[in-house]
Amino acid sequence: MYCKNSTEISGLKALTPIVITGQTQHDTDDPAIWVHPKDATKSIVLGTDKDIDGGLYAYNLDGKIINKVLNLKRPNNVDIAYGFEWGNEKIDIAVVTERKANSIRVFRLPNLEPIDDGGIRVFEDEEGKGHNEPMGISLYTKATGSTNPVYALIGRKSGPSGSYLWQYELYTDENKVVKGKKVREFGEFSGKKEIEAIAVDNKSGYVYYSDKIAGIRKYYADPELKDNSQLAFFGQEDAKRDHEGIAIYRTGKDTGYILISDQQANQFLVYPLDGSSEDKHTHKLITSVLVSTNECDGAEATSVHLGEQFPNGMLVSMTNGKAFHFYDWRPIQNEINTSLKNKL
């Protein structure tokens, strides 16, 4: 479904998505964008449908459902990694948290072929309600030269402060089955709700996550640094209530934006990816962008040219109504530019 660029919500101008996807069976939660390596107009948006018999859906850039994996046990979040070493091949993968199976699932892209022999158990031997139920996930690919190890950083429904997130290195065995090895526990937690939305910026090597009612926390993504210190805790007073989905949009080598779903206000909070001129870990609110999306849980963004509809990339957001919204980046950038100009 195609839409106009803006609409009115409570007298305020809200951006309208270019595309609204086909509906899932239950309740959408989190998207990821896979950019086609040869023809970006053939890129795919993945999205989870969370229920005890939920699924992972694949959409083309027109929002049409082109593939799906069903009968997953409450899949929550999904992320993508490029160039994963699978035997003697390098492939792209999507990894999904399967909450009620206490596992993560790994699928080869673009055809959503399962390559994990039914799943990788996570948070094993954890006690306490929700402590072994994975929800949020983001993948970190470390550039080392000869190899590019991929790590899954996973949040859960509940857990202790200081070790709320667990990090797993993904690898393949002799049968090309993907396995996971825990390499790290980290992450402060306010105790107010739960940690779900997680995003890694591979280029800078930082991970961000939403401590829902408290704010956004920032850490190093590389476990080999052996540094679990919190680098930033921002946005604490900016949201109406829940800080939710996180999307990273890059504008240059060291510049870009962090977008946070202000869920109950139906808007995105925009922060500088590179911090301030005084401190790269100081992320002050630039502006908020009102959207037509209703109570967004998960979000994803890319600056890649995806064709005439999305020449500067797109923002994808989950919305109530069993769908995802695809926003052209240009009007979002216009609002950011206007806000920055007014602050001069």
What would you note in describing this structure?
The structure is a single chain. The mean pLDDT is 95. This protein has one helix spanning 329-342, and strands at residues 6-9, 12-15, 19-20, 28-34, 44-49, 54-59, 65-72, 75-86, 89-98, 103-108, 113-114, 120-121, 134-141, 150-156, 165-172, 178-186, 195-201, 206-211, 215-220, 232-234, 243-250, 256-262, 267-272, 287-290, 299-302, 314-319, 323-328. The strands form 7 sheets. Strands 8, 9, 10, 11 and 12 form a 5-stranded antiparallel sheet that branches. Strands 3-27-26-25 form a 4-stranded antiparallel sheet. A 4-stranded antiparallel sheet has the order 4-5-6-7, with no helix packed on it. It is mainly beta and 344 residues long. It contains 1 helix and 27 strands. The longest helix is centred in the last third of the chain and has 14 residues, at 329-342. The chain is globular.
In total, how many beta strands?
A: 27
SS class? mainly beta
Spans of at least 5 consecutive residues with low confidence: none
Average the pLDDT over all residues and give the rounded result: 95
Helix content: under 10%
- Radius of gyration using CA atoms only: 19 Å
